[in-house]
């Protein structure tokens, strides 16, 4: 009763949404990915810095190069998913800040002239955006399978550069057969929330 989002949308995004471990053959189109991005780009980040970068792995050749860097238990599903995305944090996000924060372009130099500060900020904010992305995949009626079981240095070398830190790989598509592990319990409100 306290939520204004209708119950079907709550189910689609959270209650019924599951992490998929197998996928149908139905392709994920460029239009779907564009629609997902155009929705989730509005999720907030500090200074509107927007450091998430998304590499869509579509060609069979690129897929093969990615699979070899995945943990053994993640290889088969990464090879079979209709679409796979590498999510990374751009540690040079400050170059876009004058575009992204037109009312305060000085933020680029005032706050983000030092690389370690940018790396910390990019990690937090790109991770937030990765979460928005997963929820956006669900909003498109698709299932996401995020994974951090991978060789990060290998993925960075193979697909990215020194300025981009890989965060996770996400399998995307319609769920296939036996797609779910049993639903694991979540912490209750009282275990998590403290009021002072
Ligand atoms: C950042 C992240 C990394 C994950 N890494 C892996 C992974 O490497 N392999 C895997 O099988 N599942 C991985 N998972 C899946 C989680 O175990 C799963 O999302 C969680 O247990 C909730 O499952 P549910 O959505 O079905 O309730 C990952 C999930 C997230 C969000």
Architecture overview:
Keywords: Oxidoreductase. This protein is α+β, with helices and mostly antiparallel strands. The chain has a single domain, classed as NADH Oxidase (3-Layer(aba) Sandwich). It contains nine helices and four strands. A four-stranded antiparallel beta sheet has the order 1-2-4-3. The chain is globular, with a radius of gyration of 18 Å.
Q: Would you summarize the structure shown here?
A:
With 196 residues, the chain is an alpha+beta fold. The chain has one domain (26-177): 3-Layer(aba) Sandwich (NADH Oxidase). It is 43% helix and 15% strand.
CATH class: Alpha Beta
Count the domains. Answer: 1
- Mean model confidence by pLDDT: 97
**Which ligands occur here?**
flavin mononucleotide
Q: Helix fraction?
A: 40-55%
**CATH topology category name:** NADH Oxidase
Main sheet summary: 4 strands, antiparallel
From the coordinates shown, what is the CATH architecture? 3-Layer(aba) Sandwich
Order of helices and strands: HHEHHEHHHEHEH
Our count of helices gives 9
First and last CA, distance: 25 Å
- Residue share in β-strands: 5-15%
In spatial order, strands of the major sheet run: 1-2-4-3
CATH-defined superfamily: NADH Oxidase
Radius of gyration from the CA trace? Answer: 18 Å
List how many beta strands DSSP finds.
Answer: 4
Estimate the global geometry from the Cα principal axes: globular
Structural class: alpha+beta
């Amino acid at each position: 009763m306290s939520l204004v989002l209708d119950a079907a949308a709550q189910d689609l995004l959270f209650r019924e949404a599951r992490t998929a471990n197998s996928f149908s053959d139905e392709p994920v189109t460029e239009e779907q990915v564009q629609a997902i991005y155009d929705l989730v780009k509005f999720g907030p980040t500090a200074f509107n810095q927007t450091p998430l970068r998304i590499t869509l792995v579509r060609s069979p050749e690129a897929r093969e190069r990615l699979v070899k860097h995945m943990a053994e238990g993640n290889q088969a599903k990464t090879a079979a998913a209709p679409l796979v995305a590498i999510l990374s944090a751009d540690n040079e996000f400050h170059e876009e800040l004058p575009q992204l924060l037109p009312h305060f372009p000085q933020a680029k130099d005032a706050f983000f002239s030092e690389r370690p500060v940018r790396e910390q900020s990019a990690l937090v904010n790109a991770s937030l955006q990765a979460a928005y992305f997963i929820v956006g995949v669900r909003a498109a009626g698709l299932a996401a399978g995020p994974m951090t079981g991978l060789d990060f240095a290998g993925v960075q070398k193979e697909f990215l550069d020194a300025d981009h830190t890989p965060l996770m790989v996400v399998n995307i598509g319609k769920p296939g057969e036996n797609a779910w592990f049993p639903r694991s319990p979540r912490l209750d409100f009282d275990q998590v929330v403290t009021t002072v």
